[in-house]
Amino acid sequence: MVTRASTEVAIIGSGPAGLMLGALLAQRGIAAVILEQRARSYVEGRIRAGVLEQGTVALLDQVGVAGRLHREGLVHGGTEIAVDGARRRIDFRALTGKSVVVYGQTEVTKDLIDARLAAGLPIVWEADAVSLHDIDSVRPWVSYKRDGDEHRLDCAYVAGCDGFHGVSRKAIPARILKTYERVYPFGWLGILAEVPPCSHELIYASHANGFALASMRSPTRSRYYIQCSLDTDIADWPDERLWGELRLRLGPDVAPAVTAGPSIEKSVAPLRSFVAAPMQHGRLLLAGDAAHIVPPTGAKGLNLAASDVAYLATALAGALRDGDPTAIDAYGPKALARVWKAERFSWWMTGLLHKLHPPESFESRMQAAELDYLFSSQAAQTALAENYVGLPL
Ligand code: RFL
Ligand code: PHB
Fold it and tell me: Which helix or strand (DSSP H or E) is residue 350 part of?
């Protein structure tokens, strides 16, 4: 027996894209059901991004879930770039008038889930074998299994917010979907620890041994990363070795401020740039990591998910409330224009700060010249700052 239900928008995935879209649609009186393959505890436990652009904060404000963010989030008016220990502060506020907020993706996700459930809006956890049907028609539907039972959800539109490994993008025929990709020949080894951060702002460090990043989640919780090879085995990186390498790469001024402590989480993430186009096919609309991936260097992944769904909510409201189906067609091109600029910035910042080239090569001299230019030119610092704080929505 198949249990049937219907809604206006079937949202696949309860990451930041799916949850924010759900909140924006609810605000416009549009019904949506979120189908998530994982359990709530798993979704709420995933450690990922940490930096929110002002535009992302504004969206969370708009949907009324930014209370805790404003209490606990750390407002950063700048960041530091360190090159072999020499430091330069990029003053976001002076250069752009804007700042960013350090508040974990984990917390954003929890806040959105709590608000959605408190409002009595549906999330189906542990939805297995989610599959999209008839997306070329005006009556698409989604099938899934839960506890072994078969379900069918009829809808007007499907929002594919199921991340890079989800099923939605794969539902677009290969002859239509074009993908653009760069896989970087290194990863990031990350550590989360209950220790105070080494600085009140983030430090992005370029060092002969490779990139390092000092970040944080709160005044008592630190998040650090180092560039590592893709075949890194975390067993080879006991906490003490990792703290030592961080101190080395961050430089002698910062090293004494790095408080070591036991890791709460330690993992290796590969770095990738990826864009899939178009972001719409028939009644299927992709948003967030389902459509594009950036390397984390520019802190853009979560923020792009937010800008996508801001555009998507407007497009869906145009189609479903204002009777203007062409509103949907505007979504993909508008989102992609912003996505490509964030891809460019993330790729540029990755190339600027990572060890990529042999020491005496032409490319490594170009990289050194670019860093020197950044340190000495206000125009170059402004270009970094305006991209980092987020291009306009
Ligand atoms: P998400 O967060 O991946 O959420 C997708 C959701 O869809 C669910 N799902 C399915 N549900 C139903 N059926 C299926 N078949 C499904 N397949 C998947 C998943 O369980 C999940 O709940 O995508 P979204 O919403 O687009 O949000 C994007 C952001 O999460 C992402 O851009 C950032 O977290 C990227 N990212 C980072 N970005 C930064 O800016 N800074 C970082 O430090 C940073 N670290 C990271 C990251 C991404 C990582 N991934 C994807 C593995 C670290 C990691 C490990
Ligand atoms: C993080 O805190 O996890 C973080 C911050 C900035 C980045 C990437 C990750 O660019």
Answer: helix 326-353
Q: Is 133 considered catalytic here?
A: no
Using CB distances shorter than 6 Å, the residues near ligand 1 are 12-18, 35-38, 43, 48-50, 105, 127, 130, 161-163, 165-167, 269, 288-289, 296, 299-302, 305
Omega prior to 197 cis, within 30 of 0:
no
- Given the structure tokens 């490994």, which residue do they identify? 165
How far apart (Å, rounded) are the C-alpha atoms in residues 374 and 55? 25
Q: Does 49 contact ligand 2 (Cβ within 6 A)? A: yes
Q: What is the end-to-end Cα distance of the chain in Å, rounded?
A: 45
Cα–Cα distance, 211 to 188 (Å, whole number) = 9
**Which residue type sits at 96?**
T
Report pLDDT digits (tens) over 160-181: 999 999 999 999 999 999 999 9
User: Which of 12, 36, 40, 48 has most ligand 1 atoms within 8 Å of CB, for mutation?
Assistant: 48
Q: Whole-model pTM? A: 0.97
* Neighbouring-strand partners of residue 163: none
Is-contact 278 176, C-beta < 8 A? yes
**Options 224, 225, 331, 388, the catalytic residue:** 388
- Give the atom of ligand 1 at the shortest distance from the alpha carbon of 303: 40
Which helix or strand (DSSP H or E) is residue 374 part of? helix 362-376
Distance CA 209, CA 331 (A): 43
For the chain, domains (ranges, CATH) are: 2-76+100-180+272-350 (3.50.50.60)
Q: What pLDDT, in 10s, does the model give residues 177-210?
A: 999 999 999 999 999 999 999 999 999 999 999 9
Q: Which two tokens stand for residue 188?
A: 């990031």
